């Protein structure tokens, strides 16, 4: 199969389009013919060796945890799916080796759900990691109907999905973003505020009594600025800064979850969740996709397509 791989830890310049054997399909797994793979910051951070202390990695390394595709083969005791089913998933295994930047990837059924019919292949590939991250973080801070939720970096991949999920659950969302993304957030149904100095005062103008929950996607000053706005100090979750634990908040590292993916698919098919694909590039241009992602200016998601 064709795949994008690294022979050793490195950056975009080390990515190579190469030929590798198809992945083996273990009991409980299916083989997926990849139609699109999502690009996430963790892909290139892991490839640099930054997560070497957390995750076992084997080379050649095929990056990618987000996939949308068609079931090509069903392994033993994997009757949840059949050949030809359209699926999407967050394929994060115990050992990082053969990921989604390839023509085929194997995945346990617990990492997958049926692809939402309302989304294109590219949009579906942008959901799993970001969507589950948002879903699990919002659950961790117990977002309920009627809550006011502050989402930092609300125009990004995780933030835009978190905004839509919270709104679908009946919450009000105030989202931080640069001014160029304010209309985008308004289109999602959020109330935008500019990040930076004076953020707390700008949020207070919209929510004089403070906010019920905070989702931090940037870390650092965002957490410090958010704490005085919270009605209860423990209703803050961060996906980037473990220091949030010192204030009684929650640090979230997303987990594969087929039930969560199914819920996200239901929201998408009900017209309550969509994905803005900032750029869709062919598999061979993975290095360019990483460079764009590293710039940190993406609105929504970058994905790779596989013919």
UniProtKB/TrEMBL annotation:
* All residue ranges annotated as the Enoyl reductase (ER) domain in the record: 10-304
- The identity of this protein, by name, is NADPH:quinone reductase
GO molecular-function term, one example from the UniProt record:
oxidoreductase activity
InterPro entries (UniProt xref) = ADH-like_N, ER, GroES-like_sf, NAD(P)-bd_dom_sf, YIM1/Zinc_Alcohol_DH_Fams
Q: Which CDD domains match?
A: MDR_like_2 (cd05289)
User: One Pfam family of this protein, by short name?
Assistant: ADH_zinc_N_2
Highest taxon of the lineage: Bacteria
């Amino acid at each position: 199969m064709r795949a994008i791989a690294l022979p050793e830890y490195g950056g975009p310049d080390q990515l190579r389009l190469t030929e590798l054997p198809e992945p083996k399909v273990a009991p409980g797994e299916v083989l997926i013919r990849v139609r699109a793979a999502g690009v996430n910051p963790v892909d290139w951070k892991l490839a640099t060796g930054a997560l070497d202390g957390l995750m076992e990695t084997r080379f050649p390394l095929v990056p990618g945890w987000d996939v949308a595709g068609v079931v090509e083969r069903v392994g033993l005791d994997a009757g949840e799916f059949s050949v030809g089913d359209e699926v999407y998933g967050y394929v994060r295994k115990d050992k990082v080796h053969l990921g989604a930047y390839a023509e085929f990837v194997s995945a346990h059924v617990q990492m997958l759900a049926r692809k939402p019919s309302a989304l294109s292949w590219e949009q579906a590939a942008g959901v799993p990691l970001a969507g589950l991250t948002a879903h699990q973080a919002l659950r961790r801070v117990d977002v309920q109907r009627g809550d006011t939720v502050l989402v930092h970096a609300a125009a990004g991949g995780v933030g835009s999905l978190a905004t839509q999920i919270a709104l679908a659950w009946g919450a009000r969302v105030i989202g931080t973003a640069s001014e160029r993304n304010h209309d985008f957030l308004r289109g999602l149904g959020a109330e935008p505020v500019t990040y930076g100095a004076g953020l707390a005062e700008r949020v207070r103008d919209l929510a004089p009594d403070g906010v019920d929950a905070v989702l931090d996607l940037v870390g650092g000053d965002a957490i410090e600025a958010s704490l005085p706005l919270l009605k209860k100090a423990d209703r803050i979750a961060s996906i980037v800064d473990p220091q949030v634990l010192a204030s009684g908040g929650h640090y979230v590292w997303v987990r594969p979850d087929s039930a969560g993916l199914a819920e996200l698919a239901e929201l998408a098919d009900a017209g309550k969740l969509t994905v803005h694909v900032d750029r869709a590039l062919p598999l061979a241009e993975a290095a360019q996709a990483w460079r764009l992602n590293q710039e940190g200016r993406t609105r929504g998601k970058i994905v790779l397509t596989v013919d």
